[in-house]
Amino acid sequence: MSDALVQARGLRKSFGEVEAVRGIDVDVARGEVFGFLGPNGAGKSSTMRMIACVSPRSGGTLSVLGMDPGPDGPRIRARIGVVPQLDNLDAELSVRENLEIYGRYFGLPRRHVRAKADELLEFARLTERAGDRVEELSGGMKRRLTIARSLVNDPELLLLDEPTTGLDPQARHLLWDRLYRLKREGVTQIVTTHYMDEAEQLCDRLVVMDGGVVAAEGSPAELIGRYSTREVLELRFLPERRPSAGELGRHADRVEELPDRFLLYTADGERTLGDVAAAGFVPLSSLVRRSSLEDVFLRLTGRTLVD
Asked: Where does the chain cross the membrane (predicted)?
């Protein structure tokens, strides 16, 4: 990919005997939102730390902004923004001070940093809280401030590691809105998440990771079309009336049996539900939904994203 801001070939990361990243190939194009989707321990954060130039690779090649993170780490870090998995704001400082002091680390002029702080406070919807100490903010506000701080140096590449973990639905959607705005402004983003809906909402393209390897790559729609059906019928049964997966499988393209329910993969969930009922199986509850990236992960690995 000639316009790739990040390019990895055979990238590896080991911690002693444990190989967290096992030879992955990745290309991230300028202007896209690229995702690493997978459960905890899949190798997502280890990959991000190598791209952020804070953890050396154990093998393979890696190029970030056309440079090698080994010798060129400081030059790369000056041109990227990083949103860590856990907020590392200075709780004793005010909201504005967190932005201005961080901006000074990049050697930016004081006047420029003050103007940039005003812009970022508006972006994060925190202008009215500028003088408050960080410890007084809600979790969603802290997360928005962390993202705002990562933008103080006008980065060409923004890395977001599990950006909405622990946030309530309203805070998550507000954060997604801020990330959409950055995308419209042309900021390239790399996001790690184990939330399938977040990956579908944010990412132009993504890789599904499991056990340190890439299981699949493509846009959310491409992956769902390749590895799943248009709809999924979820069925729950009373224990004493629970059929076997084989019995249900006669009425669907594929069946996954989970501890609490069956997933029937089909082009038409309502029709399949009718076929199941006509065969004499009476579910305790039923749900017809569209296929998601979690169904892709289940197809590829045999387990759900969040175990």
From this structure: none
